[in-house]
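Morning run. Coffee first, then this:
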Amino acid sequence: MTFYEFTNLWTKDYAEHELAPTTYARYKGMLESRILPYFGHFKPDAIKPPAYIMNFYDYLSKETQIKRRKNHNSEKTLKPLSSKTILEHHRLLRAMLQNAVYWQFLFENPASRVRPPKSKRPKIKYYDDAECRLLLDALKHAEMKYQMAVILTLFTGMRRGELLGLTWDDINLKEGYVNIDKANQYLADRGIFTKDPKTESSTRGIAIPDTVVKSLVSYKEWYNEQKRLRGSKWTETNKLFVQWNGKPIHPDTMSKWFKDFVKEQKLPPLTFHGLRHTNATLLISQNIDVAVVASRLGHAQITTTLNFYVHPVASHNKLAGNVLEQLLVN
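And here it is:
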């Protein structure tokens, strides 16, 4: 059995059933574009010594990625893969070879003896409390739909897909809760679709404050009016955030709008996902128990919250200095 044949088996017996659709699509792209052209003709037990795998990573670090140059639609340029992308290739290759060990095609995993490429964790961007106030003030001039989407994400920290997967049945205005049990995603070959949450811990209820409840009440009135105006052109999906005709919004539409909005309002650059970072950062800065923050974010492990979403907030950074001054100087 060649690695190419093993990949077909791995795809049928594992990937198609166990991986999330977007994860499977990403892995499939990595396999077809780089891993299989390099290792496909090998037998799995011949992918050794570890130098073979290291040579592959070295190959990826050279000019192997075709990328369309901006503002030159007809011109393409070759560019090396980033260290983060090479590390993703390593993780996929190692995981697949580990499956080969479990299925007794291999005695050991050759990728386990290879030191993975180093990848710097990108600095997570977020808004501090002052910037959030500027954002909320600027939102008063935004379309109601986007205004509500940003407010809800900022106050709950939910993922973009979870936000776009919400239906009105998930909103408990009386108790002040949002229920999350699904997410919307997009794939070229499937279009927009609804899937189960990322993990078991992602199914959760998130409490929202009265101001957000009031905003949702106003938004529902606006939403119903849009539905009435569209009449027969409206497609009923019961989703909170939809296009003009009631059909689901493409996830990238929300991200692109937010990117353009913060630029237009002369706010610091921030991705839509940065609102999730912002939510967790501000909660922890206010001494909310990390376990509670992790639960609201849908993290299975508290360490994930600590590792990725704990940053100093500007006002608390200054306060920390003042506390030491009072302790040591005064």
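The CA atoms of residues 176 and 210 lie 7 Å apart. Good start to the day.
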